[in-house]
Amino acid sequence: xxxxxxxxxxxxxxxxxxxxxxxxxxxxxxxxxxxxxxxxxxxxxxxxxxxxxxxxxxxxxxxxxxxxxxxxxxxxxxxxxxxxxxxxxxxxxxxxxxxxxxxxxxxxxxxxxxxxxxxxxxxxxxxxxxxxxxxxxxxxxxxxxxxxxxxxxxxxxxxxxxxxxxxxxxxxxxxxxxxxxxxxxxxxxxxxxxxxxxxxxxxxxxxxxxxxxxxxxxxxxxxxxxxxxxxxxxxxxxxxxxxxxxxxxxxxxxxxxxxxxxxxxxxxxxxxxxxxxxxxxxxxxxxxxxxxxxxxxxxxxxxxxx
Amino acid sequence: xxxxxxxxxxxxxxxxxxxxxxxxxxxxxxxxxxxxxxxxxxxxxxxxxxxxxxxxxxxxxxxxxxxxxxxxxxxxxxxxxxxxxxxxxxxxxxxxxxxxxxxxxxxxxxxxxxxxxxxxxxxxxxxxxxxxxxxxxxxxxxxxxxxxxxxxxxxxxxxxxxxxxxxxxxxxxxxxxxxxxxxxxxxxxxxxxxxxxxxxxxxxxxxxxxxxxxxxxxxxxxxxxxxxxxxxxxxxxxxxxxxxxxxxxxxxxxxxxxxxxxxxxxxxxxxxxxxxxxxxxxxxxxxxxxxxxxxxxxxxxxxxxxxxxxxxxxxxxxxxxxxxxxxxxxxxxxxxxxxxxxxxxxxxxxxxxxxxxxxxxxxxxxxxxxxxxxxxxxxxxxxxxxxxxxxxxxxxxxxxxxxxxxxxxxxxxxxxxxxxxxxxxxxxxxxxxxxxxxxxxxxxxxxxxxxxxxxxxxxxxxxxxxxxxxxxxxxxxxx
Amino acid sequence: xxxxxxxxxxxxxxxxxxxxxxxxxxxxxxxxxxxxxxxxxxxxxxxxxxxxxxxxxxxxxxxxxxxxxxxxxxxxxxxxxxxxxxxxxxxxxxxxxxxxxxxxxxxxxxxxxxxxxxxxxxxxxxxxxxxxxxxxxxxxxxxxxxxxxxxxxxxxxxxxxxxxxxxxxxxxxxxxxxxxxxxxxxxxxxxxxxxxxxxxxxxxxxxxxxxxxxxxx
Lengths: 306, 479, 217
Hints:
The structure holds three protein chains of three kinds. Chain A is an all-alpha fold. Chain A is about 70% helix and about 0% strand. Chain A is built from twelve helices and no strands. In chain A, helix 6 packs parallel to helix 12. Chain B contains 19 helices and no strands. Chain C is an all-alpha fold. Chain C is about 75% helix and about 0% strand. The model of chain C has no long low-confidence stretch (mean pLDDT about 80). Chains in contact: A-C, B-C. The interface of B and C includes residues 124, 154, 157 and 171 of B.
């Protein structure tokens, strides 16, 4: 019971802090002082209190989009273990449900974008679809590496099996999985080098385009949901890097939260240092991640490391 | 001691002629080296005792056979080169002075291949032959020659790299039992044969077949051969076809010996059979309607290498036929290329359609060309007929009638293809010759003449010494 | 130290995939240099348990590989690139996107073959044989799929690296064979190829081997 409460609290409270950390890091690299760390919380609160404007051309899909995307991310969050904390729902195959919940959320976001009837949002939706179709195999291959290692298709057990010694033995496979997962993280959360979240030039937007027409509480849900998605991917990456025993118990929780902030800082650093890829290069980038994941699986099956 | 002389003398002479750039001096040095090399080789024939016991250098029957072939062909080529270099060529090359040194280094490298008893050393020697012959191919600074040399370098280097991997695989097989590892010494490997892990020996042979087969000209790895052999100057082509292909074949034979010792002879033979038939098939296809007579001769080399591979692949009495065919082909093809050089000098083009009336223009060259073509096409009473017939009868005796029929059919197509190109060249009136008909230089006639006479003799009678050497080679190959 | 050697071998495979995927010749050459560095690090890592005199031999191998594969040869290639004035692979026979996927399949093939060929005396990481076979196959892919002469030479170098990796399993059983074999081969081969490229770039106006296709039947 206590586990579940801690799980929920972390899931609901921590994510917007990550966005603040990223913005602060970028400001640091740019020599500015930037907005305060807790700015995202203020933004969400402000948006919730505003009224929403709905175009007369839209239907219920447009209203449903942000709600569904937030809901799916939250449910997906219940499937991911946080450090020593058991996930709220654990069952065989929850890895795949996780991936497809996120896919469902993405689908509704795209549908909402298409629902506006504007070709501009449609362009964003099509780009998102193209890149997602490449990022998903990459994600699945990375999850496959975990699944093969743990002989189980459940996230909880997959991460549980990574003892301290596993890195020593399985280093190549885990390195490859980490890199693949990092790339997927950047792609799914629309970070540089895949997409620039801070751009205000409409033609260079990818993800931003889709959510351009939402306002008020809808926008709040979207912002909150995106921070939560970043948080979840960060959690996956973190537990891949840190072995399970380290993250047990109370200090494990603390370590976990600190680790998430570190991931956020790294993402911010990445955004400040690397330039955004040309649009034609993004598929190559994602295919490279998929190939790396495939490499990891190949090594597991035929490398004789086990 | 003699082996060191055999290797060192051409190499040293090459260095000397590289610095002394007078053509006459170079040619004298070339001739002298050829004579000494032939003399040393003859003395190896005459010496009793087992010379193959060294761990790095040594001469066994197969090595002596190919060494002698190299020596004879080089001897003939060096005489031919005298008039070839002195008469001027239709494509003015720069760096005329590089010809002789490169030839000598080439000879040294090929000699090293034949006298190596260590697989790694042999590999290095074959690599050295590639490097020594590439500048010779690019002798005339033509675009097409550059293309040929580039393809040659690239494809053969890749083949050599694959062969190195095969040598490594053999090394892994050898070190499977670290206590008494035979290393890469051929004699030790053959003695340790039954102990070697067979999977590794198999794959090693396969890699060596692909790698050295590239240098030997087995299809489908032969794509560099028509270009290189046709763009090189004619004496170089004679050496390439007559001596270098044999050296590559020797590389494959060494691996074959280890295979047989390890009990994997049947596997090796089946691989050789496949590649042999593919080679003859591909060569026959490209021989028909070939427009360039030097390329024609090059494809004929591919075909003959295929025949040799088939001979080994059939095993038994066909191995004797294969080795005899190696002898016949070397001598005949060298003669053919030298004659082609004469034709090129007379008509200024390698396009067969532009050459007519050869017999009227240069009677000796024309007649010999027709005779040599008949020889290489397998007509009795010449040597190649005997060797090809030996191989064919082995298929009958072995009950593989389909193989024999296919063999004959492909050979027939190849011969007809060649006839379609060469015979029209010889007949008719010389309409567009570049140089007027005149007495042909003796040195351009004598070397091919001697080689063709040798083929004629071999067709009717195999000298006892040669027969003995061939039989000993067959025994080495487990036949 | 099997994990460290496994990481090095993995890095080598990743550089192979990078070479396959990029069309920029400068990046290809730099990746080859990086491979040279990784290869130089392999012998000391694999044969960490050596006697003093063996260390001399291993050190020699390492330093030689580093100088040649990470220094001299990339420098020669870069010079050839400057002289020929080319920067990118314009139209490869096998498009780059397809090559990446093919490269991944070849890696899988290399691992499959590696499983069939277990070393009689296991040496170093179990990834050694699969990594070498995968590198060889990917070298072939670059060799066959590219048009630019320099890219083909890079493919040949990758092929050589793969053979070298395999040869490392024999470094103790058959000393001096490996270095002599591979380094001599590499040095002289690339040197001569460098000369050939130089002549090609002078003779033709670029080193697109499309022009080197006039000799055919």
